[in-house]
């Protein structure tokens, strides 16, 4: 193939949480015209192999160092117009995005990011749960506990949990005991509900475990869940079955907004 005078663009594409149908339309269109795809491990190979065209260079990055990956992307961009780095969920969450874009910029390669459905959203969707609920919590914290990567000061789970908001804890299923300890230390009740979802959205492989702070670890052990799982602690969990619920103002008949006038008479119904 003739060398192009202008290098191509490297697209960091969020593949979504696992179900190949959960990639964005834009991500899929880019894959369909890709000359080369570097995908992040088994979580996203399905989307790569489903949507990439015949003859596309497809490479799994699981045994590569960061330098090897950026070298591969730069070399591919010198051969192809469209090069894709396909990542799980959203590329901006625990995806080493900036570590990879800086060498590309230094090499004069254009790059751009296509967001993806993150596994926190997919996990809550799988369980039929909501991340926010009026007057219960209006805030979501996406975090992890310290493993080999330390947490910056002030971001220890105990400190974040003190807000009593929805907490989506990534990369921490093998450290579930630390999550339990942090929540209890922050004053959560040991009977507070916890949700663990493994392989959210994966057709036929998704596992949903509901428990309490006290028993979630045992339940996960019983289900042999030790990887690829999201932990969610939230005062919203189980709301579908609560006897009383404060309604969202957005859909309240007495609450007018830009697109709909308030209609107080409906409220009497
Ligand atoms: N960028 C990804 C996160 C990568 S870090 C995103 O936005 O989702 C990897 C962690 O994400 C895993 O340890 C797990 O906590 C979570 N994860 C990724 N895919 C998942 C899935 N399908 N179901 C549940 N958790 C998942």
Structure description:
With 269 residues, the chain is of the alpha/beta class. The protein folds into two domains: 9-114, Tetrapyrrole methylase, N-terminal domain (Cobalt-precorrin-4 Transmethylase, domain 1, 3-Layer(aba) Sandwich); 119-241, Methyltransferase, Cobalt-precorrin-4 Transmethylase, Domain 2, CATH 3.30.950.10. Helix content is 27%, strand content 19%. The protein is built from nine helices and ten strands. It has helices spanning 25-32, 45-51, 66-77, 97-106, 119-127, 157-161, 176-185, 216-222, 264-267; strands spanning 9-14, 36-39, 57-60, 82-87, 110-114, 140-144, 166-170, 193-198, 207-212, 229-233. The strands form two sheets. A five-stranded parallel sheet has the order 3-2-4-1-5, sandwiched between helices. Strands 6-7-10-8-9 form a five-stranded mixed sheet, with helices on both faces. Helix 3 packs across helix 4. The longest helix has 12 residues, at 66-77. The radius of gyration is 22 Å and the shape is globular. S-adenosyl-L-homocysteine binds next to helix 5, strand 8 and strand 10.
């Amino acid at each position: 193939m003739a060398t192009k005078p202008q290098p191509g663009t490297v697209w960091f594409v969020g593949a979504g949480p696992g179900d190949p149908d959960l990639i964005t339309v834009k991500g899929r269109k880019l894959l369909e015209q890709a000359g080369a795809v570097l995908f992040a491990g088994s979580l996203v190979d399905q989307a790569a192999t489903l949507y990439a065209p015949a003859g596309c260079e497809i490479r799994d990055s699981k045994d590569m160092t960061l330098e090897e990956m950026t070298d591969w992307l730069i070399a591919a961009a010198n051969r192809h117009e469209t090069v894709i780095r396909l990542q799980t969920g959203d590329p901006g969450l625990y995806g080493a995005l900036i570590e990879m874009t800086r060498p590309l910029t230094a090499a004069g390669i254009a790059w751009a990011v296509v967001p993806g459905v993150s596994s926190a959203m997919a996990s809550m969707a799988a369980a039929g749960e909501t991340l926010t609920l009026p007057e219960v919590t209006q805030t979501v914290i996406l975090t992890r506990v310290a493993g080999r990567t330390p947490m910056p000061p002030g971001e220890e789970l105990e400190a974040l949990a003190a807000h009593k908001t929805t907490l989506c804890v990534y990369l921490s299923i093998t450290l579930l005991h630390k999550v339990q300890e942090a929540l209890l230390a922050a004053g959560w009740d040991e009977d507070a509900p916890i949700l663990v979802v493994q392989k959210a959205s994966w057709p036929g492989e998704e596992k949903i475990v509901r428990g309490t702070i006290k028993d979630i670890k045992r339940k996960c052990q019983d289900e042999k869940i030790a990887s690829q799982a999201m932990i969610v602690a939230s005062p919203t969990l189980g709301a579908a079955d609560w006897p009383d619920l404060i309604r969202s103002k957005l859909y309240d008949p007495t609450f007018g907004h830009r697109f709909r006038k308030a209609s107080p008479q409906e409220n009497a119904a």
